[in-house]
């Protein structure tokens, strides 16, 4: 089996740049035989949705049977990653974690200095995350519609994609484990027109939850929207 590892990536703040290098090295050690790609779709502003779509295209063209999409600030544990890769043959989306831990600034410094992640202070931890690290076959990614590139900047694209995956592929698989988010200055633009528009678009997916035909109609709209 050939695995493609995709990091949606555009250089940013010093913290984000350093985290990207750390995460990339972590993934290279975790999956040494995989195809490793940093991908930027070229959207302005940077588009995680567009870069994930482009990453799956590039990984598929390179011969990947399964793609690991990993954010540049997020670390996954080895065992659930390998479990999810092995299970992705079922055609569903898989999350190699069941718990999210977002480290504080000091927690991130401590972790990068060698402390165990579980011992580092957190800003937020919960069991309802749906992004960060996604594992899926390329054909399944396109069958769920990929990610909606109408989500610009940061926010909500993960939730919408999960709704699509559950409706069109079957329930998303989760694997016991934790992902660790490394602190960096926020770039969410909370309350900005862009962020509000993302939330409004996501609400349309929420309203279509569990309705495959309604989801397909939302996906069909995308072809008429300029990239």
From TrEMBL:
Coiled-coil positions: none
The name this protein goes by in its record: Galactosyltransferase C-terminal domain-containing protein
Q: Which domain of life is it from?
A: Bacteria
> Any keyword Transcription?
no
Q: Care to name a GO molecular-function term for this sequence?
A: transferase activity
Q: Which UniProt keywords apply?
A: Transferase
Q: Which residues form the Galactosyltransferase C-terminal domain?
A: 129-160
Q: Name one Pfam family in it.
A: Glyco_transf_7C
Q: Which InterPro entries match?
A: Galactosyl_T_C, Nucleotide-diphossugar_trans
Q: Which Gene3D superfamilies match?
A: Spore Coat Polysaccharide Biosynthesis Protein SpsA, Chain A
